[in-house]
Amino acid sequence: MRTRAALLLIAGLAPAWFAAAQENPMVNQRWNIFDYNLVRTQFNNTGLLCDGNQQNMPLARPPAFEYPNGSGIQYGTSVGVVLGAPADQLPGAVGGDNADQKPYLDGTMDEGSAAFWSEEHFAPYPFLGTVERTPMSDDVESWPDPWPDVLPGSGRPLAVGSEGWPGFGPGGEKVAEVESFTSMYGWKGTDAQESGATENVHWLNTELTCRGLSWSGSLYEDFIVWVYTVENIGTDPIQDLRVGVHVDFGFFPEFFAAPFYDEDRHYYDPQLQLAYGWDDNSFEILPSGGTVGGEEIAWGGAIALRMPGGDHRVHTYDVFHFWQNATTPRGNGASQELYYLYNLVNDQDPQDSDGDGIDDDFDEDGVPDVENGGPGYWVASGADGVQVMGSEPFDLAPGEIDTLIFATVFGINKADLITNARRALNLYENGWQPLTPPPAPTLEAVVADRAVTLYWSDDAEEDEEFEGYKLYRSADNGVTWGDRSFNDFSGGVHYVPMARFDLDDGIKGNYRTLAEYAWFDLGDDTGLPAKQAVTAEMGLSSFPVGDSVYAFTDRDIMNGLKYRYYVAAYDSGNGVVGPLENTPATNPAEVNNTVEVVPHAAAAVTASDLDEVRVVPNPYIVSNAWEQGRSREIQFTRLPGRATVRIFNSAGELVRTLEHDAAGAKAESIRTWDLLNDDHQLVGPGVYFYHIKSPVGETSGKFVIIL
């Protein structure tokens, strides 16, 4: 069947889907977001894993490898894959016109994200255009209905598992907690599509599938695994095919002209097959304004877990600037054929000391840096470095499939990055069998005036190794989880919980079985708190009346601030790995172990209650500890259920009108203002007046803004 499908394409007797796709197959391009662990990115169904738009964030498509999830800091410029082969190919292996006999190079990158000069050489199959988003296992509305029995180009069967999802495991079952799936085919690319060019427009007859794999848990929350299969859907072998991973991270990714741009360092670990990077001087200008030091800048990279070819190893590694030294062995190839030669094959690179295809001499003195104390990294100006890891050359017969697997991985420092990369490798080597903590409890919160009461289930106690619970609180959207933190022996950061309850079983103090986990505190044999019976008066929606739950009330908080809480169950360790605990869920709006609340006073219900309306803070000062993260806002508190707030400047001009409706609001008595006027411009400092009109009465007052 595979051979017959390829013959139909070459003979011009293409199936209907192919003819329709050629009108403009990119109308079927779709996007979706991985948002399950600490790595958050928007990816598409044509093989591009982020779009940082050449580090021009106003034109980017965030999140672009945001880390940690919730921080708003994007590290991704462009991550995708490339397929290349020499010009001398048999007719059935290729498509288009190659009269000039130039090498083939097909990439999933878009010119906007990667300055890749022949963009998007893979197009999605039409069945992927029948939905609004790239399919993900936890997003049923993104699933085509029905899934095709076979992939259109190759005729390869698509196995769908018991959950209705075509998972990565045997029989179409999932292996990860969250997976994505897409399939695409090689074509002329969007540049040729838009220009109408046909001369010397050429591509390899291949079909790709791409899957993303994501897990939660402290061992797996810092990476996403990506699996690409490459199939020859032509009628002749593709000779000396090479497959590469195009890795372009910026720390931070923001495009500035000189002299405002900063520099990044790029490293390669040949044993671990990890291409990674970090900032060069521990100082960066934030895309959103302000500056940060090195302790706030993450490390990031990609680890090759399995390369196509005979030995599944990385055979070439090239690092280069995305526009400097273009068309030279030192820089970006700037065309399909030169990218193939200079970046994927890595031919004649002066940073390759022995011509083996691996850059290792970054001071270009002819000796590998590891042998003579060279820098051990390459510096790119303007956060503009690109890294490519390539396979060995191999032949791919018609209908034959090979597989590329890599992980995009992050850490808060170098040691943490290396640890997380090794965890991705261990997960791969263990057949995708993760080590897991006890089941995560279900958490619900009830807010009051300067108080939040947390209720959680006892599901975790079904685990034989269950040891206790930890409660954490975040005031910055889940970026950090407490005022006190510490580093483990591998560089990972951990937070001291605001409360802990552990079994009174003699298992306490620091874990002792494995030295590398001696930092883990198992508790003090406090015992678990007493359970409470759920009553209707509690107002809980996740637990039925009569159920038994644990409860804890936090009173060390301020009204009007947004807090996240999560409860982590942890175990006692098992001798193979140290104690494990749950990590926070990334979507607190769902029923899970994480909630997001805004404590507040009761809403005004009478005219006299309006005397309690306040503007908080007043005066507003940017540097005030009231601020959470980098947002700017003030709050009108103790409002009635419905109200109209009008804000005027000292000249009596209406600045902004705000409508308040308690229905569906996170804080029923609070309305926030982002300090923007009706034209979405930031207001200036000064005295402002407000007037509030509601069904229960009216009130007015004034406040001061100091920027």
The rounded Rg comes to 28 Å
Mean pLDDT: 91
Structural class: mainly beta
Give a quick account of the main beta sheet: strands, pairing sense, barrel closure.
10 strands, antiparallel
Number of domains: 3
Shape: globular
- Low-confidence stretches at least 5 residues in length (pLDDT < 50)? 1-13
Q: Number of DSSP helices?
A: 7
Distance between the termini: 69 Å
Query: Helical amount among residues, as a percent range?
Result: under 10%
Beta-strand percentage range: 25-35%
Number of DSSP E strands: 40
Verbal overview:
This protein has 3 domains: 2-429, no CATH class; 443-597; 608-706, Immunoglobulin-like (Sandwich). 48% of the residues are buried. The longest helix is centred in the middle third of the chain and has 16 residues, at 414-429. It is 8% helix and 32% strand. It contains 7 helices and 40 strands. With 707 residues, the protein is mostly beta strands. The chain starts with a helix and ends with a strand.
